[in-house]
Structures are given as structure tokens and as C-alpha cells.
Amino acid sequence: MKIRFAVILLLLNVAALAAGFVFFNQYRGGQANRENDATQTELAAAQAPVAAPQTVAPPQSMVVYKTNDFRWSQLESADYREYIANLRAVGCPEVTIRDIILTDVMRLYAQRRGQFYHNGRTFNYWETNDKRKLKQPQIEERDRQLAAIDRELPAVLRELLGINYEREINKYFVDADQDDERLGFLSDDKRDQVLSLREQFEGKREQILNKAQNGTLSPDDIDQLREIDQSQDEALSQILAPQEKEQYELSTSPSADRLRQQLIGFNPTQQEFRALFDKQKAIDDAYEFQDTNDASVLASKAAEEAGMWEGFKGNLAGDRAVQFERSQDPEYQKLTLLSQRYDLPADTSETLLEMRQAVEEEKLKLLSNKDIPAERVEAALQAMQAETEKAARETLGEKAFEQYSQTAAWIKKLGTN
């Protein structure tokens, strides 16, 4: 393990430096004393009368004791809690402790997962691959065991290190600085306190959710979760000023994340976003602990959200209302993301949608004209498809069009009746 090896080297270097420091002081001190004694002796000899030679006793040997004799076995333990305590006792940084334990635990669970991917048959190079395939009962057992591991691993890491497993893994594969980016408006001290609180209260929620029978929350579970939410809110209020707390919610809450996804292509102003956020969060809070498998609950929430959007749209004027209406089209949102990725002109999404509307209207006119022979209709449709594809390719550019065409079924359908 690279990190463990680095820690060992660090500790050994510290031990070596300490031992060297002791030896250097002893040696230099002894040497200075001997040099001083020799100087004094020479001065005395020069000033005193000549005397009979005396026998000089040989200098005593100097003993240097080996200090900080470090062995990794002094820290390692079969119990991870004790292992962590030992690392902290020698001053190992928390970040390094986290990396050491996370790597060890991940390796342990990888070994557990791996045993369910083979059927135990000895590998023979002359046998075909089907010989080592799992039987259906083995596949079913594997899936059960892996599901249990997937539930257990995050809970273990939360208990040992107080970390969110998915968020911690994302630091290595997705975005290591997301928290710093979203909470950049806070001081370092406040940000650390807020993140620590988040991990603490998330752990409490996970304990309740993991104990829920078949994923169903009891009334007592719901009451406890509500108390946790209230306690976290109160704790945040003790750390953050009202304006900071409001910005924290706007930056990190699931309600705000949903709005940032739903409003792609609309580009809301700060005031527009805040107005929608207040309504969306109120709805989300009201349905937070409702049964999402209940069709009536889902219908009720959808109706409230539809009313929220209609009310918001009603407060928009002119082109702004048209822009909002268009932004709710999934095709428009997809084109907006594509345009952003390839740095295309701002009106690219509108151009493509207008192109689609125009050619589909022409296709309907062509098909509804019974005076045109079928073979000419087919030829006209194929020509329409070819011209539309050419125009879309020129509008988007080669790379963007190749990506867009993978899901743009409407272009391919132009050439068929």
C-alpha cells in the first residue's frame, strides 16, 4: 500500500532524525568539552614549571542509545477501531488515516465480492469458458450477497471514519472540490464545521433507514427523522448567519439541485430562482416522508408542482414566458446541453427545433395530398430526410451532429411514410 509505505518511511525518518539529533548533541558536546579541556591543559602547562610526566587515563568510551525504535506492528490491529486509535496516538494526520483505513476496508470487501464471481472450478487451460460460468442458483446467491455487501460497506465506513462512502469515492473519480466550490462563500472554519455537521447528521439518518423493515419507514422512524432534520437545522443556525444559511440551502439542497436541472435552457435570474426555490422546497418538505409508491401521493405532488410552474409562468412577460415554455421541452434541454458542450451559438437549439417543426409540417402536407403518386411521395420524403440531415450537420458541426443523431429519431423517420 503506497500510503502505508509513505507513513512508514515518514515515521522511520522521524526516528532517524531524532536519533541523529541525540548523537550529534552528545558527540559535539563531548568534543567541545575535550577541546576546551585540552586548551586549558596546554595553557597550564605553558605557565607551570616542568614537572615529571604523568600517566594520562584513557578517555572513557561514549555510549549512544538507539531511540524511537519503530515497528509497524506496534500500530496495526485486527480491530479497525484500535488501529485508528493507534494511528492517532502517534500523530498520524486524519487525511492519511482515512486513506489507510479506506483502502484496507475496500480491499477486504473486494475480496468478499470476488468470491461470488466464480463457481469454484479449477482453471484448466484447455476447457472452454462455459465450464466456469455460474449456475443460476449461484447467480441468485451472488446477487443476494452483493446486495448485502452494498448495504454494509457504507455503514462500516460511516461508523469507522464518519464519512459518506459515495461522496468519498466521488472525490477520486468525479469531483474532489465540489464542497469547496459550493461553499466557497463561507470561511474555512465555518465550512469545516458545516461539513462535519453534515456527516454527523447523515450518519444518524442512515442508521434509521438501514434498520427500516423492507425499506418501509414506521411512524416512529419518521418522527425520529423529523427530529434529526430539526436538530440539524438548529445546529446550522448556531454556526451560520441567516444570510449564510439561506445561501447554504440554495447551494446544496436537493430541491435546488432539481431546479438547476429542470431550468436548463431558461437561464433564470437570481430572483427568479429564489422565488421558485421557496415553493419547490415547501412542496418537497411536505412530501418528504410520504409513500412514493402510492399513486395518489405522486399525483397530489405532481398537481402541486404543476400549479407552481403555472403560477411562475404567469408572472413572466413577453419573450420571457415563451422562453420558459420552450425550455420545458426535453428536446430543447438536450440541444441546450449539446450546444454548451460544443460551444455553439446561443440560438442553435431554437434553430434545430424550428427546422424540425417546418419539415414535419411539410411531411404531413405531402402525405395528405392524394394526387401525388406513392412512388413520388416516397422519393420526396427521402430527399427531405437527406436535406434535413445535411442542414442539421451544418448547423451543429460534425462532432455535435454525430452525437445528436444517435437519439434524433425524427430525422430518420422523415424518409418513411
Form type: extended
Give the SSE string: HHHHHHHHHHHHHHHHHH
Secondary-structure class: mainly alpha
Average pLDDT figure: 80
Largest sheet: none
Rounded to the nearest angstrom, the distance between the terminal CA atoms is: 63 Å
Cα radius of gyration in angstroms: 36 Å
Structural features, described:
Among the domains are: 2-45 and 60-74; 254-328, no CATH class; 330-413. Helix 3 (94-114) runs antiparallel to helix 4, helix 9 packs across helix 10 and helix 16 (374-396) packs across helix 17 (398-405). The protein has helices spanning 2-47, 80-89, 94-114, 136-161, 165-173, 178-182, 188-211, 219-239, 242-252, 254-262, 270-286, 295-314, 319-327, 330-341, 348-368, 374-396, 398-405, 409-413. The protein is 71% helix and 0% strand. The chain has 18 helices and no strands. The chain has 417 residues and is mostly helical. The longest helix has 46 residues, at 2-47.
Tag the structure with descriptive keywords.
18 helices, 417 residues, mainly alpha
Summary, kept brief:
This protein has helices spanning 2-47, 80-89, 94-114, 136-161, 165-173, 178-182, 188-211, 219-239, 242-252, 254-262, 270-286, 295-314, 319-327, 330-341, 348-368, 374-396, 398-405, 409-413.
Topology (elements, then pairings):
Elements: H1 2-47, H2 80-89, H3 94-114, H4 136-161, H5 165-173, H6 178-182, H7 188-211, H8 219-239, H9 242-252, H10 254-262, H11 270-286, H12 295-314, H13 319-327, H14 330-341, H15 348-368, H16 374-396, H17 398-405, H18 409-413
Helix pairs in contact: 3-4, 4-7, 7-8, 9-10, 11-12, 14-15, 15-16, 16-17
